[in-house]
Amino acid sequence: xxxxxxxxxxxxxxxxxxxxxxxxxxxxxxxxxxxxxxxxxxxxxxxxxxxxxxxxxxxxxxxxxxxxxxxxxxxxxxxxxxxxxxxxxxxxxxxxxxxxxxxxxxxxxxxxxxxxxxxxxxxxxxxxxxxxxxxxxxxxxxxxxxxxxxxxxxxxxxxxxxxxxxxxxxxx
Amino acid sequence: xxxxxxxxxxxxxxxxxxxxxxxxxxxxxxxxxxxxxxxxxxxxxxxxxxxxxxxxxxxxxxxxxxxxxxxx
Lengths: 172, 72
Description:
Chain A has 172 residues and is of the alpha+beta class.
């Protein structure tokens, strides 16, 4: 009588051990995926090699893009302070010598300093060659460049579609 | 404290290079920057002053590589 009962007990114990091992493996594996994502936020260069393949981890990736937006906004605020720009409505006012620019998403308007400028343009659009850069970082880029060389406004306005480096040289 | 060379990218700011300014080979740092500029057109700005710089020195703790801008 004890033989079959003993066999059942052994089988149940073995199954319990296997089940427990699977649970522990699952926790450790998912935990390691999370740590990869934490590393990704700290060092964005590693993003592509550590992309999660499990759909239910997508919310971590969304958090990462929120983080990118926060970083971009943080850099914009630093650049605004460095350039002594002022936030107004939908953009930023930047004074450089006798010129005043209104920089907003993809557009720059020259509010003051048209008379002594190389072109009569009052507004131009701008874009950064680096595809997909957050809007806040594009504005920060334009503010930094204009603060250092306000004559680039005329180049952007006149030379449609050509990219200019911060020193005013054309970049092919 | 380490110094770093960063740039803006599609996923926020990206650190291109991190080094100890006290011991780093600054010629090597500037060589990496020149190589990056050659590929992307980005030029270095000192994030302490907001000014464009020709060469990175040990005094700069954070340098931002600013990409070219086009108009239209």
